[in-house]
Specification:
By secondary structure, the chain is an alpha+beta fold. About 50% of the residues lie in helices and about 10% in strands. It is built from 18 helices and 9 strands. The chain binds protoporphyrin IX containing FE. It holds the Pfam family p450.
Length: about 475
């Protein structure tokens, strides 16, 4: 037995792990991450290489910072890295990981992901909600027109617009009372909170002591009561509205008629709806917000976009979704924004489910992985003048964000890739096209736009965008 133990431990110590920065006992490298972990990790990778192993608390985390490393993880070994770590807060919010985004890889995840891909977020389904997007966009434009020369808080309007679209599409109507707005805001705050217990399990009591656990429990209870009310309302409906079913109607139909050959619990429905809000609203609004900032900072790009919009709009009252395909510059502006301001700079953490060899290193099963998509999208060996905003780089180039080009991964890639691309980008394109078509925007109170970022899974602009607007004739 002793010989066997000695053999096992010596073979373990012969494993070739990726390089690691020096760490402190207990907290590992936590103290080094700072308020912009993607930026810190980019700098660290210059010393330790494109595949490095850091320690957040006692948890080893693999950081991939090059095209090659990302391709190995998301393509060559996609199945091995297709799981998610069990993180304290996301797991509680998602009904013990019964959602799509945080459920571990396996049969259950396959079922819920296929419900999303085939029934909730397919191109056809997204198309069917065109009237919601066009109505909400027109309402926002009308609001801007009314406020006119006064200060317009574009950030606030964009948050409302994306929340309203997701609400109407998934729940069938707008919930714009203060309580609901507050609940949505708390979703992001709670999801972005740092749980000591997730990284230093022996210090889990700190989360209790700091009030974090109580805050999460209260939020979960309140959101659950809200969703329960929504589901009961849907169950009591005699028939679906004239404009067709919303996503809760569809989930209830799948449950009732057992359409997928897999029985769905009520908690699964709630967890999926929670995903639509937590994964769909914040990311969409953030990318729109950064796009507007970049256009405000680059008048030539703004002019180019306005010319394209004028040519397509031809004096009509608005640009409609059919027009968007004919607007390559608009698409290039949004791609360039997602490159420079990847909404989830480290994507969503993955976890390996078996031992694997990666770029010559041994990666043990159960290793958490962050892909630094933000750093890869600014890698000077791949991108020319990577720090500059140049939408032209995407014109007449096949490079897309659908997960086949590993230098550009705002939506991830492989089987865990984002199923909401079409949903998000149609809103983004429609709103941005109409905003520049209908208004000239100028900054209020700032000579130079403050581009500081917040901390969290999704990185926002810290301060709101305040502009004055002039309607274009
Ligand atoms: C600009 C907007 C968006 C961005 C940047 C974004 C980004 C991402 C990223 C990086 C991932 C993880 C991918 C990976 O692990 O490889 C993801 C997953 C996911 N996203 Fe999105 N997303 C956006 C919009 C949406 C929308 C609108 C929805 C739904 C309405 C959505 C639903 C999801 C879901 C359910 C997952 C989990 C997929 C899985 O684990 O299998 N996302 N998204």
């Amino acid at each position: 037995v002793i010989l066997l133990k000695t053999y096992i431990s010596s073979s373990k110590s012969h494993k070739r792990l990726p390089p690691s920065p020096p760490k402190l006992p207990l907290i590992g490298n936590l103290h080094q991450l700072g308020s912009s972990p993607h930026r810190t990790l980019q700098v660290m990778a210059q010393t330790y290489g494109p595949l490095m192993l850091i320690h957040l608390g006692t948890v080893p985390i693999l950081i991939a910072s090059s095209v090659g490393a990302a391709r190995e993880i998301l393509k060559t070994h996609d199945v091995t890295f297709a799981s998610r770590p069990k993180l304290n807060i996301p797991s509680r919010i998602s009904y013990a990981s019964k959602d799509i985004a945080f459920s571990p890889y396996g049969e259950y995840w396959r079922h819920v992901k296929s419900i999303a891909v085939l029934h909730l977020l397919s191109n056809k389904r997204v198309q069917s909600y065109r009237y919601v997007r066009e109505e909400e966009m027109s309402l926002m434009m009308e609001k801007i027109r009314r406020d006119g020369k006064l200060v317009v808080n574009l950030s606030e309007l964009l948050v409302s617009l994306t929340n309203n679209v997701v609400c109407r599409v998934s729940l069938g109507k707008r919930y714009d009372g203060r309580n609901f707005k507050n609940l949505l805001e708390r979703t992001m705050t709670v999801l972005g909170s740092f749980s000591v217990g997730s990284y230093i399990p022996s210090l889990r009591w700190v989360d209790k002591l700091s009030g974090l656990e109580k805050k999460v429990d209260e939020f979960v209870k309140e959101f659950d009561e809200f969703l329960e009310g929504v589901i009961i309302e849907h169950e009591q409906k005699k028939e679906v509205g004239a404009q067709g079913p919303d996503l809760v109607d569809i989930l209830l139909e799948i449950q009732r008629d057992n359409l997928t050959g897999f029985s769905i619990e009520r908690d699964t429905i709630k967890a999926i709806v929670m995903d639509l809000f937590s994964a769909g609203t914040d990311t969409t609004f953030t990318s729109l917000q950064w796009a507007i900032c970049e256009l405000l900072r680059h008048p030539q790009a703004m002019k180019e976009m306005q010319q394209e919009a004028l040519k397509i709009g031809q004096g009509r009252s608005m640009i409609v979704e059919d027009d968007l395909e004919k607007m390559p510059y608009l698409k290039a502006v949004l791609k360039e924004t997602l490159r420079l301001h990847t909404p989830n700079p480290l994507l969503v953490p993955r976890e390996s489910t078996q031992d694997v060899k990666l770029l010559g290193y041994d990666i043990p099963s159960g290793t958490q992985v962050f892909i630094n998509a933000w750093a890869i999208a600014r890698d000077p060996s791949v991108w020319e003048a990577p720090e500059e905003f140049r939408p032209e780089r995407f014109l007449n180039k096949p490079i897309d964000y659908k997960g086949f080009h590993f230098e550009f991964l705002p939506f991830g890639a492989g089987r865990r890739g984002c199923p909401g691309i079409q949903f998000a980008m149609t809103v983004n394109e429609l709103v941005l096209a109409n905003l520049v078509y209908k208004f000239d925007l100028s900054l209020m109170g700032e000579d130079e736009l403050d581009m500081s970022e917040t901390f969290g899974i999704t990185v926002h602009k810290k301060s709101p965008i305040l502009v004055s607007t002039t309607p274009r004739s």
